[in-house]
Amino acid sequence: xxxxxxxxxxxxxxxxxxxxxxxxxxxxxxxxxxxxxxxxxxxxxxxxxxxxxxxxxxxxxxxxxxxxxxxxxxxxxxxxxxxxxxxxxxxxxxxxxxxxxxxxxxxxxxxxxxxxxxxxxxxxxxxxxxxxxxxxxxxxxxxxxxxxxxxxxxxxxxxxxxxxxxxxxxxxxxxxxxxxxxxxxxxxxxxxxxxxxxxxxxxxxxxxxxxxxxxxxxxxxxxxxxxxxxxxxxxxxxxxxxxxxxxxxxxxxxxxxxxxxxxxxxxxxxxxxxxxxxxxxxxxxxxxxxxxxxxxxxxxxxxxxxxxxxxxxxxxxxxxxxxxxxxxxxxxxxxxxxxxxxxxxxxxxxxxxxxxxxxxxxxxxxxxxxxxxxxxxxxxxxxxxxxxxxxxxxxxxxxxxxxxxxxxxxxxxxxxxxxxxxxxxxxxxxxxxxxxxxxxxxxxxxxxxxxxxxxxxxxxxxxxxxxxxxxxxxxxxxxxxxxxxxxxxxxxxxxxxxxxxxxxxxxxxxxxxxxxxxx
Length: 519
Description:
The chain is mainly beta. The protein has three helices and 40 strands.
């Protein structure tokens, strides 16, 4: 009986409360959402923007009051999964988390968006929020924004200008058959790394491409970093390049890349990384060395030149040691060169892909120059073959040569002084008959000097025939204007006979190095 009585009283109270609510006509501040919304009729919701470009967007915001009193926010969320331990989670926006739960980018706090997009290339949610600060009521709209990288296929050029060291990228139809006109990404390095001023004089820019890694090494006389090839952002500073404790002295003088294998020389010490593992030093048991150059050899082994004892050294692909080469056969003694290395590159010898060209000078420089050619086509350095030892001293201007370029598809050797480029006439096993000036056809102005030459060392992209060795690149610098230039000159791959200049590209500084980014 009491149970039924309690139920009846409860129902009566509930009905009384409901009636009171229906009859209450008090003045309460309820939020009216009827006129505050984003009009989505016929609007575009997917956009694409180039990284570092200014992106603009105006939402169709409807609001019956004074829009100037609203608070606005544009935010950019990655649309990919975030991994935490062994689990994956969606982005902050897609799971309705706040900015404290997931990192995002606040682009602007205005109704109309006009902002420079610095986010790394990828897919994003672009979220617009308008809020009435008095009521807390919000109107929201999310878009999809694809950020495209600006660093695509092209010739990356390292130079130093009035603002310091920087990198430009030239996309040229000469190297990429899918293009019809050249385009430029200027100051790619400083734009994305404004707070990291790169010290010293620029030395090397090397693109490292493989199936699992895609980096760019940038080295100067005082520093070295590893960059992302997507946007030139610094992925690893100097200490992060090495395994364990990094060298005390920052003096990176040579970088050689072969797929996933990277060879590097810092302060005379040889380092090697394989398959993404950081660089570790190579040790010499019971001896000392100071390498001045290195290249990869057969089996992804390493061959190095020891400037301390003027001899060649060898390292195995998976080994941690570097050892002298002994008992190798041929035109010279690998263990007793007795000269200082000037330049080293791959070259041509009967189609052997492991032909090495090394230019030397005497320890007491008397103007004499030598070209030694050997084949590193065996698993052991002790089995290498020295195929030529040429005295090239009689070649015009070679004692003043500051840069060299060697062909891989034909017996072609160029060298350059500050004022001229010469082509050498030689036979690896017989000697040389001299050299002739081949560029420029008219003298450079008094203040314009050659700073570097190189044959284009890539096959290019989407071309009918390979561009490898097809172009001689000559970098010059005008001291008066502070401008650098790269002249692209057609070159016969088998003879080195030059054609007309195909193109010339200008830069805001003195060019130190260049390499091709192929994507």
